[in-house]
């Protein structure tokens, strides 16, 4: 019985010694073997290893060798010019020197991350402090992350840590800076809009000036042409009047007097206070009879009308057109233009003399005016002016 107990105790002691002298390092770890606190071995490769039995003499410290990440959130950074950003960033690293890592931070990952946070924040402040406000939001952001990574890497080497990368996740504006940024953006857009509007107004003024100049040139040319045409027309009119006057002076004076009567008394409400001996009443005192006209002997005036009519002219048409009542009362004023044309056509035909149509009788003498066609006085208020007969 005693032998069996002794055998069991020996087996237990042997098993404990065997198990305490064996340790395993997997592929995600690296190990340090320490004898009484002093590092004796550094194991980087995974596998089965042996040490002095029990943990009183030698101990094993396992250190992670994977790529690790540390996040730094909501830190307030000042840029050149006094403005601030709210930044989120992270760093990725791995422990490449476990011996130095054990010596500097006692192999504690929490202590290492505290120092990483301090160094990363310091590096970001240095990088942002050298930049203007717009740099963090521009293409310089990649350069800023590279500079921050270089600054942190030089410090992390002392801890046995290799920095893989530094990334800036978020760059936000503080509420104060956000308001100032919005106001500046609004001012810039307003300035750009004012510039565009000013250029548009400038172009509009240029186009308006060109159009005004062209309008003035067109109107001036039109006025010039109209004055030339009007002058040529007036010259032709004066020529025709002079030739007509030389054809039959007495009839021309009579015709012009009739035109003056029609113009002065057209509306039928005109009262004229004139002397009875006035030349204006030269044909009013004839007892309603037309004056005697001499037979024209001059060659007819060519005014561009068509040739002679083959039918004789009825002289009664002249009596109707020259009726005193119609001239005084103004009846038929709406057809004034048509009557004038008819009168000129008849007068032209009558002035052609006995050579109008060979073998036909000359038009009869116009019938004398009757008492019914005597001048009519109107009852409107007198006008203090004196009419002058047309020449």
UniProtKB/TrEMBL annotation:
Pfam families: Band_7. GO terms for biological process: proteolysis. Gene3D superfamilies: Band 7 domain (3.30.479.30). Residues 348-391 are annotated as: Disordered. It is a single-pass membrane protein. Residues 20-185 form the Band domain. Keywords: Hydrolase, Membrane, Protease, Transmembrane, Transmembrane helix. GO terms for cellular component: membrane. Signal peptide: none annotated. It is found in: Membrane. It comes from the Bacteria. Coiled coil: none annotated. GO terms for molecular function: peptidase activity. Its main location: membrane. Belongs to the band 7/mec-2 family. HflC subfamily. This is Membrane protease subunit HflC.
């Amino acid at each position: 019985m005693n032998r069996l107990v002794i055998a069991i105790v020996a087996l237990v002691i042997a098993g404990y010694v065997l198990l305490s002298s064996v340790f395993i390092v997997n592929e995600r770890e690296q190990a340090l073997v320490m004898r009484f606190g002093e590092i004796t071995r550094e194991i980087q490769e995974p596998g089965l290893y042996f040490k002095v039995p029990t943990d009183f003499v030698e101990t094993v410290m396992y250190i992670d060798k994977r790529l690790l990440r540390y996040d730094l959130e909501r830190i307030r950074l000042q840029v050149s010019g006094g403005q601030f950003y709210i930044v989120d960033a992270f760093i990725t690293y791995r422990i490449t020197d476990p011996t130095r890592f054990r010596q500097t931070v006692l192999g504690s990952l929490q202590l290492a991350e505290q120092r990483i946070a301090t160094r990363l924040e310091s590096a970001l402040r240095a990088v942002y402090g050298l930049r203007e406000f717009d740099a963090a939001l521009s293409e310089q952001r990649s350069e800023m992350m590279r500079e921050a990574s270089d600054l942190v890497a030089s410090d992390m080497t002392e801890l046995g840590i290799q920095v893989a990368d530094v990334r800036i996740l978020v760059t936000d504006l503080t509420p104060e800076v956000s308001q100032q940024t919005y106001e500046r953006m609004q001012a810039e857009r307003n300035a750009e809009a004012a510039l565009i509007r000013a250029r548009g107004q400038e172009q509009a003024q240029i186009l308006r000036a060109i159009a005004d100049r062209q309008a003035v040139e067109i109107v001036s040319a039109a006025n010039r042409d109209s004055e030339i045409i009007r002058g040529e027309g007036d010259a032709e009119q004066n020529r025709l009047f002079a030739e007509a006057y030389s054809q039959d002076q007495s009839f021309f004076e009579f015709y012009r007097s009739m035109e003056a009567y029609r113009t002065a008394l057209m509306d039928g409400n005109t009262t004229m206070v004139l002397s009875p001996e006035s030349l204006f009443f030269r044909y009013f005192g004839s007892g309603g009879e037309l004056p005697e006209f001499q037979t024209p002997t001059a060659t007819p005036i060519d005014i561009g009308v068509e040739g002679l009519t083959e039918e004789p002219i009825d002289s009664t048409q002249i009596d109707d057109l020259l009726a005193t009542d119609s001239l005084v009362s103004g009846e038929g004023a709406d057809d004034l233009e048509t009557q004038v044309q008819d009168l000129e056509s008849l007068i032209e035909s009558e002035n052609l003399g006995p050579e109008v149509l060979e073998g036909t009788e000359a038009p009869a003498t116009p019938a004398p005016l009757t008492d019914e066609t005597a001048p009519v006085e109107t009852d409107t208020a007198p006008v203090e002016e004196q009419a002058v007969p047309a020449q």
